[in-house]
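2024-03-11 09:14:02 DEBUG pipeline.ingest accepted 1 chain
2024-03-11 09:14:02 DEBUG pipeline.ingest length=402
2024-03-11 09:14:03 DEBUG pipeline.predict start
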Amino acid sequence: MSMVQITINDRQVSGECEPRTHLADFLREAENLTGTHLGCEHGVCGACTVLVDGVPTRSCITFAHACEGARVTTIEGLDEDEIAAELRTALSKEHGLQCGYCTPGMVVSARDIVLRMEAPSEHDIRVALSGNLCRCTGYVGIVRAVQSVIEARRARGIAAVPGGGRDRLGPAGSGHAGAVQENKRERAAPAEAAAATRAAQVSRDDNWRPQTTLEDSFTVSHPPEVVWDFFGRVEEVAACLPGASLQGAAEDGHVEGQIKVKVGPISAEFQGVADITRDETAKAGTIDGAGKDKRSNSATRGRIRYVVREGDRPGETLVELSIGYTLSGVLAQFSRSGLVQDVAGRLIAVFVQNLEARLNHEAGGGTKETAPESAALDAGSLMSSVVIGQIKQFFARLLGRR
């Protein structure tokens, strides 16, 4: 794994990836830019087309590290683009859309045609789009849409840009040798600089939004001030979470560690980092984290918000949780089932059990060194509950149709 730095949709991104990682996989899995579609993965169908330094490029056969220092624009980055907006309107008007799978790559390629070709014929447009395959439309509506946009822009006095604004020969993304050498020196920097880079990875995108959010709460039979104080001791909190371990002590609200999850045949070990903030007045905290499982090449990003309140009974504490996460890669298929919710629910239950045991130990005068061993997640029991739940849902649907 090594660091790569790319400007994606006008935002500087730094991330770790294997040298063999393709740009399309980096965009989809590391940056959650899933508008870049994967079809043939051989550079034939064009569904994965993005702009690299302004040039349409097959991201499924372009290595992410080959784009070191380059500017990459995906279909998401063309939301406010004038030509792309006109193409979307024209494609809708000319019925150039059906399943939509080819559309992101088709729009990127069509935009390049509108930008650099002054008055192309229908044949010219078809040749220029021959690298973008569509299984639905027959291309007639797509070609008409491109023609109409070009004619409308030329009628408004907007001329083509010779070469589409390209100012150098060579592969798309080339011309950044200086940046590559600089990054090589950065990789040889002290461990403190590398740790700072990893820390920045978690919080670099303030606009991140989770794909799934879970709301939960639990009650602890100890006063709020005791629970709040315990939550501030990150190492002890991690010890209560099954499968979690830290790599060293937390520093300035930043921590590195891993969490292992094994449920039946599913096994993952997410290595990651987290930034922790706490509001003493509101007794509320936020944990922003990101991690990756090397075995499955799956990645996750999450945000946990918690609030500590008075419980219904004296001496009790109510902890309200909001867990938002995004899961990408092979393991993302399980996020569409109830499995992730079941795992999260069981993890919380075991966490509360371990939390109670440690707080009881402290209340009895025990020390951290003599704290009770934390309970582990019962994966077999969890799988059984998932299967039973699915069977119940099946019969509920079956009986509901009768």
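2024-03-11 09:14:41 DEBUG pipeline.report Residues 82-165 form a domain with the DNA polymerase; domain 1 fold (CATH 1.10.150.120).
2024-03-11 09:14:41 DEBUG pipeline.predict end
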